[in-house]
Write a structure and sequence with these properties.
Number of strands: 6
Radius of gyration: 19 Å
Helix content: 25-40%
Pfam family, one: DUF7500
Structural class: alpha+beta
Strand order of the largest sheet: 1-2
InterPro entries: DUF7500
Length: 157
């Protein structure tokens, strides 16, 4: 049996933070990106983003899926999953554009990955929706797929 977590587990006090460390990048006012020690700092912004995207595509990871109840699957992550996610996050954070997505999708047992950045948040959003809808069915246009999905959802648009 593991010991009960304390309030101090995983939480750093402000005086414990070292924001001048090589693994820390300032993202904005009071916002920082802290890379794990395993990350390579020598990558340029573009190569870091490309490496992060390819690491998600090329990852050969064994994952398990358990089910709490019939309607809600729970995903169990391995240490490799967390490391790959950290690399993808770092690559996206290093992109020079202010908006972006880095997403991996599983549909009908097939895995697809999409990475996009832009200066226009609307462009990223439309690109993401179009890509997602395009992955669902080869016989239906993305526009038709989105219409069906929105009509079947609880969202009011």
């Amino acid at each position: 049996m593991t010991p009960e977590p304390t309030d101090d587990d995983g939480v750093l006090a402000p005086d414990e933070l070292q924001l001048t460390d090589d693994r820390v990048d300032a993202l904005g006012e009071n916002r920082y990106l802290v890379r794990p020690e395993r990350m390579d700092r020598d990558d340029s912004s573009e190569s870091a983003a490309a490496a992060a995207a390819s690491s998600v595509i090329d990852a050969d990871v064994d994952t398990e899926t358990a089910t709490d109840d019939a309607s809600r699957p729970t995903r169990l992550e391995s240490d490799q999953d967390q490391f790959d996610r950290a690399r993808a996050t770092d690559g996206l954070a290093a992109a020079p554009e202010p908006h972006g997505v880095d997403i991996t999708l599983k549909t009908d047992g097939e895995i697809a990955h999409h990475y996009a950045t832009s200066n226009d948040v609307r462009e990223v959003f439309v690109d993401l929706l179009t890509w997602y809808a395009d992955q669902l069915d080869d016989d239906v246009s993305p526009e038709e797929a989105l219409q069906v999905m929105l009509a079947a959802s609880d969202l009011e648009v």
